[in-house]
Amino acid sequence: MSKRTAKYTIEEKVDMIHQVLSDHQSIHSVSNYYRLGKHTLKERIHRYETAGVDGLKASRGWKHYSEATKISAVNDYLNQVDGQVGICRKYQISSTSVLRQWISKYTGGKPI
């Protein structure tokens, strides 16, 4: 992992999320105010809803998922059970990009 410093503290990240979830401000207005990408803010909200404040802390390593979890998540997506964010919440997947990688490998005939 790189040794980059966080641009925002945990408290600032929580404040951003609360502005969207509790104060009913738009993702667009909050992301513009903090000069943060909308996708980044959405990912932080997802991690906060999934893992709480701990989900906003910098990870110390890779999270491992069982093959059964990966296949179930991919099948749910391919069978249109839910969208990427919903599936990530259901299976506690750290990010939609992780799910997209699994989908790409699975549909390409590669092991996930």
From TrEMBL:
Q: What GO terms are given for molecular function?
A: sequence-specific DNA binding
Q: Which Gene3D superfamilies does the entry mention? A: Winged helix-like DNA-binding domain superfamily/Winged helix DNA-binding domain
Instruction: Name the source's superkingdom.
Output: Bacteria
UniProt protein name: Transposase and inactivated derivatives
